[in-house]
C-alpha cells in the first residue's frame, strides 16, 4: 500500500501554516472542485456523510450546503477548535476528535442510525490502512468518494495483467464497484504535494463479486499470491503454510496453471482457489 507523501510547504498563508506533515495534510479550497466532488458523490439532502480529515472545513461546508448531515473525524486538535467555531450552531455537523483508524465505523453507523456515504480528501499518511478498514467495515456504508494520490487510485482500479494490479485491486473490486472519476492537479493543494491526486468512487456491492466461504482466508490467499511477484503461483502460495503437493492439488482442482503468476488471476479465480485450499 502507499507510502506517506510529504509535500513541501509553500507560502505563508493560513492553510500552509496549519498543515502538518505528520498528519499527511494537504488542503483543498477551490470551490468549483469541491462542489464537483459533492456532485460525483451523489450526496443528497438528509444523507449521512462521514468525512475523515476535514481540515479547515472547506469540503465539509460544501457537503452541508448540499443538505447532508456530516460526521467529521479529525485527529488534529489544532484544527478542531476552528472547525467547532466555523460550524457552531449547525445541526448538520458533528465533530469527532479522534484517530479515524481507531474509530469503529460500524458502531458509529449503528449509533447514528444510518449508513454513511464517505466523502473525504483522505490524509496521505493513512490512506492505505483506511482503504482496508473501509473493506472490513463496508456494512456501515453505501458508498465512498475519496481523494487519493493518483498512483494509489490507479492501483485500486487496476485490471488483471497490469503492473498496477495487486492485493488492493483484488480486495477492493471484490467488495466494491470501483470507478476513477477525475484527476486533481497537485497545484490546487496547499501545501503543494509531490504528486497529483484522483477522486475515486466505491459503491458497496450487496454481496461479494465471487462466492467466498472464508473472507479472512481469501484475503490471505490473495496476499500470498502477490507476496513474491516474480514467482509462479506454485511457489508463491507455499507461504500459506502448505506443502508443494497441497498447493499443486488446489491449483489443479480449479484448473489454474501453477506456472501462472498472481497478477494474471481475476477475482473469480482467486475465490475458487481459496475455496479449493479449504476443501477436505
Q: Into how many domains do the coordinates divide?
A: 2
Total strand count, please? 9
Q: In the CATH classification, which architecture of the largest domain applies?
A: 3-Layer(aba) Sandwich
For the CA atoms, what is the radius of gyration? 21 Å
The averaged pLDDT comes out at 90
Helical coverage, percent range: 25-40%
CATH T-level topology of the largest domain: Rossmann fold
CATH class of the largest domain: Alpha Beta
- Tell me the distance between the termini: 34 Å
- Helix-strand pattern: HEHEHEHEHEHEHHEEEHHHH
- Give the CATH H-level superfamily of the largest domain: Vaccinia Virus protein VP39
SS summary, helix count:
12
Shape: elongated
Low-confidence stretches: 1-17, 19-25
Biggest sheet strand order reads 4-3-2-5-6-9-7
User: What kind of oligomer do you see?
Assistant: single chain
